[in-house]
Structures
1.
Amino acid sequence: MNIHLQDSHPDVKACVEQALKTCTSNGSMRNGGSAPNLRRLTSGTGSLALFYVSAEPSVVIKIGANDVMREETEFFEAARVFTKSAPLIDFPVIYCRSVDRSIGWFAMEAGKDVTIENDLYDDKGELRDGWVETLNRFADCMSPVYRDTLTTEAWNLDRYHLEGRTRALLTDNQAMRINAARIAGLPPFTDIVNSRVAINGRALGSPLGMLDEAVSRMRGTTAPCSFIHGDLQLRNVIPSEQHEGFLLIDPRASWEGKAPHVAFHGSPLYDAANVLHSVAGLSPILIKKERNQAAALSALSLDRSRLVLDLDDRYFASTDAAIEMAEECVATMLPASLLDHDWRIRFYLYAANSCFGWLRSQTVVSELATWALIYATGIRMLGRAAR
């Protein structure tokens, strides 16, 4: 099978060809003898490449480090046990896989050729009418997952995400210097780390200062954990072809080699925070970036010891509204026992953590405007956690 791919990486070509051949031979994909239509999708930091294959049925091929691919397929196999009480939440069926080499792959059920992002945002990156209803419907579908898998066991990675990982991302010397070297106009790493920040005229203090303030306000309580997806951003939620619910893809079960004591469990607030950072910043950023329009949304300058970020007023207002509504949505999505006096602090710290994690993606963060938008979104989350 000769597949022409616009990709110079030989492992990607070999994996795609092997996946298509296996899917065809085992009957999981039928194309009537015609060459399959492949479309490359935007992939995150956890994969080498991702392809949508228009066939009968449609298939997604994911390629990456074999340990990551193995972990994800194991997650899918285990997930169905934890989602039995949520009939409108599914995980994709794995048709075939190969994780025996340094680079692995798997082919899985594709679902619809859109994500829930299409129901919340239009192709200009503007919130659609009815987006709140869509978000609440998804929260209703997810609610039984957290309610019925909740345990008294504490999430051993709670503090790591709230403080340790966030601090490491903010002070990641290597990643910041790589970005500063390849992104024209980005201030030096030391200036970014040590500068106070102002967004649209509002002074917010320094990132590390806000992190310290937020952490000091927590009373040391540890939230219980449940089964979680681990990366519940909008692009990982696909409307199901089988019912009115959703298909969840691209889960995450470990972070920088750290795994939870209870397999596939963590804080449900972490899942909710990933929804928040996606609805209130990441999705419109990605939409604008894919249309080469991100530059119109932000400006950045360094004024003495202050990093000044100016965001487009309309973008700022719509994402601010999304932040407020996403917070309300949490009350529907999560068990009441999780909504203690500290929950908003953890909620926004988790969201900031997820935002700053994107600064390591050289695929997404390829120009100054995208860096500024993602950094500003993370800072806004930190500011809410600290106030």
Note: The CA atoms of residues 99 and 242 lie 29 Å apart.
2.
Amino acid sequence: MTTPGTTLPKNSPGRDTADALARTIPAPAAPAVARRARPRLRALDGLRLVAALMVAAYHYGGRDGEISEAWGSSPQVQFPTAHNWFAYGCLGVQIFFVISGFVICMSGWGRPLRAFFASRASRLLPSYWAAIILVTAVFALPVVAYEAVSPSDALVNLTMLQQPLGVDRVLGVCWTLWAELRFYALFALCVVMPGANRARVILFCAVWTLAAVIAEGANEPLLDLVLMPEYAPFFIGGIGIYLVHRDRKDLTAWGIVGVSWLIGQHYAVSRLWHAPNPDFFSYRTSFGIIAVVTAGFAAVLLIALGALHRVDWRWLSVAGALTYPFYLVHEHLGWVAVGALHRGLGLPSYATFGLTIAAMLLLAWLLNRFVEERFTPLIRGGLMTRK
């Protein structure tokens, strides 16, 4: 027997036994350091919904096309003044991409590839599949004036790969999902798989920015398909803003944000601006386009810096949850709702506009409540289960 605090001689017969026991008895655990969870950025949820409502305003009153059939005339007639403002709503997509860059970098940081893939798939697929089925079924009804895609094309749409395959789209907005998928793939391969850290993320942003500029200059379709020069600055800008969120003194991160904004506004203006022309539906000024892009970057940046921390209302989390299903269903089913309310019931234009938005938000809540909340955990759990 030894008393506490004594040491056996080095060559003592009991020394080996004591060493063996010491190896089998775990040392007292060090006190756990509480890891403070980052607060949920509810203002970002609210910004998501604002961007989605901008896109809806564009689809309902800021462009021609099928929506004119729903109104019975051009939205220029329905909204003589507002249609010019609604036309800027298409820039909600660019704001979405900035938010996506921020969120994907945040969610992929410190997460293994399998978990990253499971989180993205379980987030995107349930409402997407439900929206594909719902819109296909509604458009197949005899009372609906819009033509449904073929059964074969509808099935291909379930893969989210209809865009590169040249298949008719069930959802007009799904082209943005194809851009998102390519961004996820690039980020997963270059950052998540080797392990996210500041140096790797900065290298990813720098290389993608330079490669996208080269792709634009080379005019090579394959490079354009992979590198997305038109949209890359917005995703990269969002990633840079997340780096600023982690360290507001990071000058390199600020540089990424600045360069991305400069290139992003260039693409937005070059794609959406045209000289005043009475034959065009509406006229967006270059100043207006730059202002909306700048406001999108600034809003995400203010949230990242904590300047909007007071905007922490709980209902904003609900707004964020409704954004994705609302975005999926609002365009095509909105045509049906506008036609039924305006031409069917004779409601005024602005009343129809507001009620259609409300109806699509209600449908989004139903999809979130009965589809996403039920199937998202199942898909995530199934993808994370190891055999």
Note: Residues 349-384 form the longest helix (36 residues).
3.
Amino acid sequence: MSVAGEAGSGPLAGVRVVELAGIGPGPFAAMLLADLGADVVRVDRPGGTGLAIDPEYDVTNRNKRSVIVDLKAPDGPSRVLDLAARADILVEGYRPGVAERLGVGPETCHARNPGLVYGRMTGWGQEGPLARRAGHDIAYLAPTGTLGLIGSPDAPPPAPANLLGDYAGGSLYLVVGVLAALHHARATGAGQVVDAAIVDGAAHLATMIHGMLAAGGWQDRRGANLLDGGCPYYGTYETADGRYMAVGALEPQFYEEFLDLLGIHDHSAARKDIARWNDLREAVTARFKSRTRDEWTAVFEGSDACVAPVLSLREAPHHPHLAARGTFTDHGGITQPAPAPRFSVTHTSIHSGPAQPGADTADVARDWDVPRLLQDGG
């Protein structure tokens, strides 16, 4: 049975997606579409993308199929256009103008398929003074203000891996955008271009905080606010074994339970008294340092104190709640997050491991009726 036959239980069953291979947010967005049941064909380039990871372990390419097309070859663009003509969505992550120069830009694709949703994933967006400049996650986050609100006031802002920019501000906004445009295309027959820029998405993530800033409820500096570590009952604390506990006891009833279990209920009045926050922080710090992370985890287990252990990547799959829910799964010998979110009818799953470059050319040529993919080995 082909992969196409195995796929299709998710809510996007029957949706066809072409992904022009890249790195970072584009592949993650295409993985999410594939996890939701879409038939995603990744168009890999000869020689790969240059990403220093073995394709067998690149789980952002799970649930996809791969063909290899050299877009710089004379017939390369026409092969991609054959795929685009049969697709619902195309995703690319080149710098502005590159897809056009390669012959697979929106205008050319829409000439073949007017209903195509053409998703463009970049850091700076398709226009603006920096649109053609290179960059990565952290450089896109920096000018939005989102990076600058994270971290201790006594240290530089930390690098939040590439989760906040590439994936939250980039991939997730691209997926929302192409699905909204697909809804419009199916209602009207008209495709369109979706310009998903990390700078736009990362800025948008801070919408609530901008409202608080305007209302005078947020100070424009790090470590001085309710949700940025400035508040002693919302943050992380080191334990006796050098590990950490996370505290989010914001509401009064949760705060009281937190103090009771921590053993410092005499600090109850400090919740609303900012002048006493330093004393409260010192008391909380000292208490957490008196026991190990696992000991504190046992103390707070089953409570509504909103306290949890800070786990590592390898520890997380073994957390009792996450294990019970199946938040992580093993596929092909790789422990990885399971598809999310969950659906009561159109269940999702990992049905295939990372697509290997070019391995699915024959199946895609048959299933999508694009025989030219097989010319010269595809």
Note: The mean pLDDT is 95.
4.
Amino acid sequence: MQQHPHATSGEHIVRGLSRSRPVLFSYGFRPFFLAAAVWAIISIDLWVLFLSRGLPIAEAYGAIYWHAHEMLFGFASAILAGFLLTAIPNWTGRLPISGRPLMALFAIWLAGRAALLLIDWIGAIPAVSADSIFLPVLLVLCAREVIAGRKWKDLKVIAGLAALSVANICFHLQVLKGVTPDIAIRFGLAAYVLLVTIIGGRILPSFTRNWLNRSGRMDFPAPHDRFDAVSIAAGMLALVSWTLAPTTVATGLLAAGTAILNAVRLGRWRGWTTWRDPMLVVLHIAYLFVPIGFAAIAAGAVGLEQIAILHILAIGVVSLMMLAVMTRASRGHTGRKLKASLTTTVSYTILVTVAVVRPLAELMPPYADVILMLAAAGWTAAFGLFAVEHAPFLCKERKPLR
């Protein structure tokens, strides 16, 4: 473990402890988690105003494409950045990126959000160019740390980040060419889902084992083995097939098999034993949407609307897992107890409900408008509760260890 440059001899880094000003930029999770929650609210409410009031949004880009892009590559990329900039130092033992370099990276992300929102004034090429910088820069920074730390097994995560970088550029290119960016959307979402299966396979059984051990129980989750590797590999094949040919029989069969594998995998982690801990059980619920999502992909081969599948994966798998990780990391790395408050538990409950309700808009067309408004309200409430509760944690010094 490297020492902080201002630490005294024998004093090691305390994760999340600010050593410089401002505190918000002392660790990657602080600015990116808070900004992601705020942008989740702003972007979805702008989308609702477009749907309900005709508010013009990024007309040179297309409001529907702006909405899809900002969910996948704006909101979600910020949370991924906050997670990786916090997790990688723990994986490698190297110092975290903080201070001015972190400010610069955050400014690049902000510039991308502003550029796409102002695309009608600054032009399409400058806007997409500004947005396309963030993920490759994040990729370089994370790859450098993983390689320097010789954590070769973590290159799988770096590969997922590289896929997202390519997907984002492909998204822009398809839109600029006047082509519906369906493949880029599926590509980007597939990368996130694959990252959930990789990273989730590390943190869920580990956190569950620790919790059971503290509870004096010995019925631990199954350790990572060949079954997990097969499940991840099958998921990758199914997601590649879905990205390129979403409605084929081959995709349906691959997805159905992967759904079964991931359902068994989740069962091996014994999530039902954690029902008394909302902050832990929500991780298992989020992963439950992985087999549900693959089952939906399989159903897409026989007629289920692709937009419903996208929202099952985007909200149930990606966003719910991200909210769960955000709350846990925000509390743990700022010295708070890893215990969900009532506010946090309510936010989980709301987002789970949104993940279930939003795909119904395509299945129940007469009620689509009402469902969309309810889902947007729930989304705003879930991330609003996170922002209100956790902003003070993220902007203040870590609580001293006792």
Note: Residues 182-214 form the longest helix (33 residues).
